[in-house]
Design brief:
Layout: H1 2-20, H2 23-31, E1 57-60, H3 64-69, H4 71-80, E2 86-90, H5 93-103, E3 107-111, H6 117-127, E4 131-135, H7 141-150, E5 154-159, H8 163-169, H9 173-181, E6 185-188, H10 191-200, E7 205-207, H11 219-231, E8 237-243, H12 248-258, E9 264-269, H13 275-284, E10 289-291, E11 305-307, H14 314-320, E12 323-326, H15 339-343, E13 348-350, H16 358-367, E14 370-372, H17 376-387, H18 390-406, H19 410-427
Parallel strand pairs: 1-2, 1-4, 2-3, 4-5, 5-6, 6-7, 8-9, 8-12, 9-11, 10-11, 12-13, 13-14
Length: 436
């Protein structure tokens, strides 16, 4: 019966891939209207063209958040293995741009091929990575199967799995179990993530913590943010960071309705392709605004909203604010990373939906570094209370710094878990294929 279920799950997965074939170029063309990067490097998405590098330490990070989370781990691995080339793969143009900014000086960066058997076999045959590190929860069946056939050890690093995602994977239980059984090492963020992964079939699971705690705020960005704050005068600054579709309209309406005119809202959407859309939402609320990309010199005193339409400056925005709302949490999207705001010593507010950062959010609230609100009106109510209460903001900021510092160390723990398969790959020894 288990074998029959595995055959059925594989059949359903392959049928879904087959049906998607004509939709892939249409999707790339459609998304390329707003992000031109989707119109480039199509050959890489099919593993065509010359091999970018061979024998590399290969890290796959789907987009921006995962690329940034990988940084402390990459630093630790390069320190231990300075002569091993590095290859990054990603899925989105913004992820690629982030990789170029963070790692372009030493790594090759390409798109990961779509998860078709032929493309994945070509990728493994041409690249021959020493070890594959999949960031967070990237369980692609043909990728995992091709790596096992090629003798490439796989590590699932900074692994997280919400209850919602676990239910999704459980719809193809035999295929999920077969994939996880072929992953050599799973470095889970929390005990809860580890338990859910083990229940789905992961074999070698370790709780290593969250790599995002190990990301140190770059001093140059902190200095940039402090300079912005000085130029903006004495105005109270609310940062809405990494906001997602469906949230900005609610937030802007509540802000326009309740915030005093001297409060400056700095609004930084998560996805750059939405900058123009969000500018339209600001205008629809009748709020005077400027864009970071066109801001020269002083901020206009009449400006109510500054649209953060720049990339790679999130730590500077945190350094320039008095308190921060972390987006993706007003709408049921799972939330974004609140650790960065805490590591800069800023009070944090989040909405009710934080299942993607469940443990970190709980710990931050328990530490007194963050507050949870129910909706946009509740957010603005708490914002106004905190802006008039400097001692409480200071206490929350100090609690955030302590919270961020206390949970560091995941990079060293994950690097230690990766060391054995990387050392085996360096000797040319192949690992036995996993069952399933």
């Amino acid at each position: 019966m288990p074998k029959l279920r595995l055959i059925l799950d594989w059949t359903l997965y392959r049928l879904a891939l087959l049906l998607a074939v004509p939709l892939i170029p249409l999707r790339l063309l459609w998304r390329g209207r707003r992000e031109r990067g989707y119109w480039q490097h199509w050959n890489e998405r099919l593993a065509l063209g010359p091999a970018p590098v061979t024998g590399a330490l290969w890290i796959h990070a789907v987009s921006v958040g995962e690329m940034r989370a990988a940084q402390p781990l990459v630093n630790a691995l390069r320190a231990a293995h300075p002569d091993v080339p590095v290859l990054f793969t990603c899925m989105t143009p913004t992820g690629r741009a982030t990789a170029e900014a963070l790692y372009g000086g030493f790594a090759r960066i390409v798109y990961l091929p779509y998860d078709y058997a032929g493309s994945m076999r070509r990728f493994m045959r041409r690249v021959r990575p020493r070890v594959g590190i999949l960031m967070e929860t990237e369980l692609w069946p043909n990728l995992i199967h091709a790596a096992a056939r090629a003798g490439v050890p796989l590590v699932l690093a900074n692994a997280r799995l919400s209850e919602r995602s676990a239910r999704g994977y459980a719809r193809l239980p035999a295929l999920t179990r077969a994939c996880l059984a072929r992953v050599d090492v799973v470095a889970a963020q929390t005990e809860a993530d580890a338990a859910r992964l083990e229940k789905l079939g992961a074999a070698s699971v370790h709780v290593a913590g969250n790599l995002k705690f190990d990301i140190a705020p770059p001093p140059e960005l902190l200095e940039r943010g402090a300079a912005w704050k000085a130029r903006w005068g004495q105005r109270p600054v609310l940062l809405a960071a990494s906001t997602r579709e469906g949230e900005e309209a609610l937030l802007l309406h509540a802000f326009a309705k309740t915030a005093p005119t001297d409060v400056l809202l700095v609004l930084v959407p998560r996805h750059p392709q939405r900058f123009d859309e969000v500018a339209g939402l600001i205008e629809a609320e009748g709020l005077a605004h400027q864009r970071r990309s066109t801001l020269d010199g002083e901020l206009d005193p009449q400006t109510r909203v500054l649209l953060g339409d720049s990339l790679g400056e999130l730590f500077a925005y945190y350094a320039a604010c008095d308190l921060a709302f972390v987006g993706g949490s007003l709408a049921p999207l799972g939330g974004q990373n609140l650790i960065e705001a805490a590591s800069v010593g800023r009070p944090v507010l989040v909405g009710p939906h934080t299942f993607n950062f469940e443990e970190a959010t709980r710990l931050a609230i328990e530490a007194g570094a963050a507050l949870r609100v129910d909706d946009a009106d509740g957010l603005m109510e708490n914002v106004l209370k905190l802006l008039s209460d400097a001692p409480t903001r200071a206490r929350m900021g100090e609690a955030g710094l302590s919270f961020a510092t206390r949970h560091r160390g995941a990079a060293a723990r994950v690097a230690a878990l990766i060391a054995p398969p990387l050392a085996d790959a360096g000797t040319g020894r192949s690992r036995p294929d996993r069952p399933g």
